[in-house]
Amino acid sequence: MYITSATTDDIPACADLLAEVFSEDGVTRAFYPGDVDIEYHLRFHEEAMLRSHLPEAAVVDMAIDAETKDLLGVAFWIKPDAKPRLLKKIQALPLWWKALPSFSALPQIRKLSKKFDDAKPDAPHWALAEIGVSSAARGRGVGGALLRHRLERIDREHDAAYLEATSKKAAQLYGRHGFQPHITLDIDGIPCYTMLRPTKPYL
Questions:
Q1: Is pLDDT above 80 for 132?
Q2: In whole angstroms, what is the distance from residue 61 CA to residue 83 CA?
Q3: What is the set of domains in the chain, with CATH numbers?
């Protein structure tokens, strides 16, 4: 296994993997009220996010099987104080349109999005927007390898890192990588654990 940075050519494959992983996530499902095909809409959401941010405002690390070249996992990091360029946001509008399950879902999406936005630290930080491992690659240490790869670079830059863990198991994993509890959110009855990794001196 090796880790490499995604380019815009890799966006479709990364979006596919993240949509597959997060379509079963309880916190993610709270954004899609009603009986909808979550993975279908989430696929467009993932591609819109990636196309809006890459490469100026984010980095995406990909774990690749050295023999088969299969995509094993993806980590999507937003750079400190980075914002997507306006042109990129406009170009992604058709994808955002397809990501929306219905107009009636907008109040729910806005309400939950505000909760996440309000919990973010004020100080500059790298934000782990998403990390996902394909079902076929779980148990092989892919997620840990992706985290170590980027956190080592973040430490070299003396930066902080932030994320949202959607389960206690995930929060425990992130805790082993130096993340500390920040704020616990209530997402329609599901706890979501925001976590902060303070700046560290790089030795």
A1: yes
A2: 19
A3: 2-197 (3.40.630.30)
The answer to whether 126 and 76 have CB atoms below 8 angstroms apart is no
Mark residue 139 as left, alpha or beta (left: phi above 0; alpha: psi -120 to 50; beta: remaining). left
Question: pLDDT tier at 73 (50, 70, 90 boundaries)?
Answer: very high
| Single-letter amino acid code for the residue at 200 | K
Counting every residue written for the chain, the total comes to 203
For the chain, how big is the Rg over CA atoms in Å? 16
Handedness of CA 120, 125, 127, 59 (dihedral sign): positive
Mean per-residue pLDDT for 159-163? 97
| Whole-number Cα distances in Å, 74 to 16, 42, 128, 154, 158 | 10, 15, 11, 17, 23
> Whose structure tokens read 């930080």?
125
Nearest to 75 by CA among 127, 124, 25: 127
Q: What is the pairing mode between strands 58-64 and 71-78?
A: antiparallel
The single-letter code of the amino acid at 151 is: L
Average pLDDT taken over every residue of the chain = 93
